[in-house]
Amino acid sequence: MMEEDDKDIGRTVGFQVDDFIYIATIIKINDHTEQFTVRTEDGQELVGPFDAVFLNPEKRMDELHENYEPLGDGKFRAKHPELKSNWTPVPDPSLRSIAQTAGTIIGVALAIALLIIIVSFGDILTQIGSEDWVETEGSVVDAYDGQDCSTDSDGGTSCTSYTSVTVEYTYEGRKYSTKDYSMLSNNWLNDAQHWLGQDSVTVYVNPEQPSQAVHLQGWDGVSEEVFTLLFFTGLILFGYLFLAVPVWFVYAKIQRLTGIEAPGEKEEEGPDSNDLKADGDSENDGKPVTDEHNIAEARLPEAADASLGGEQNSEEEKFW
């Protein structure tokens, strides 16, 4: 069969190359490489595979103008070209998701507070009862700054600093010593040098058990632990609202502006040349085409008209 006798030569078609679509005329067909050569309206010659072509572009003009930007001379560019990125898509920030996370932080803090109350209930009652303990003066005999370290499952190590102080005092003629800052903590405020420089330190002695004494009396010891929990909760909440949320907003905004889709959002898909090729192959069931009429159908399957999304119902994520 002579190439110039092929009925597809001279046919006006749509021709897709990456994010561009051209209204072009077929000028050459290579059955061996399964490629078309087309001439665009501005005289440019392009070469591409059979499945880059769709028929009857004049019937698809409305959809072309909807999904593609006209550039003149029968050339169109996709309005939302698919961009590839190594960034992990994140959802757009919303007041609901921010409030939920903030609520989770507060909920965790309340759960920790409840756990502390359950585990330390006896010590809390003793600390409150120290309001009636006897005040006396003692002297610091030892003080040092230390660290408690722990290793997680990934091998990472985290450490917490503390100050330990030993105070010696006399009650009813007998000497005793205590390391308790309160019944709820042995971590003394300020560093070791501060306490070593004190001439005397006030402690409150349990008259029923003189070996038991604290530096922080009654509700003061309870309120200090509550304040510490509130401080760290507020610090985490502040960091989330004024650091993490702005970074999240900027990160998501940059992704949407560069065309990276948010997870969970969907929109209609654009042209899919692989689907067109699969449609063409299925119509011929893999059998060789021998007559001229069938060759034309195999090259330009009518099902390819759906390449602009007219009959596709598949979904993809929306842009911000």
Strand content: 25-35%
Q: Can you tell me the number of structural domains?
A: 3
Listing every helix as H and every strand as E from the N terminus to the C terminus, the arrangement reads EEEEEHEEHHEEEHEEHEHHE
CATH topology of the largest domain: SH3 type barrels
Category from helices, strands and their pairing: alpha+beta
Number of helices: 7
CATH first level of the largest domain: which class?
Mainly Beta
Report how far apart the termini are.
53 Å
Unreliable spans: 1-5, 266-298, 301-320
Mean pLDDT: 78
For the biggest sheet, the summary is: 7 strands, antiparallel
What would you report as the Rg, rounded to the nearest angstrom?
A: 39 Å
List its traits:
single chain; about 325 residues; alpha+beta; SH3 type barrels; seven-stranded antiparallel beta sheet; five-stranded antiparallel beta sheet; 14 strands; rod-shaped; disordered C terminus
